[in-house]
Amino acid sequence: MYGRYTKVMLANRLSTLLFAVTVFASATLMFLVEPMVARMVLPVAGGAPMVWNSCVVFFQAVLLGGYWYARFLTVKAGRQRLALHAVVLLLPVAFLPLSIRADAPAPGANPMPWLIAALTGAVALPFFVLATTASLFQRWFADTTSHWSHNPYLLYACSNLGSVLALLA
Question: Taking the complete model, does pTM exceed 0.70, yes or no?
Answer without folding.
Answer: yes
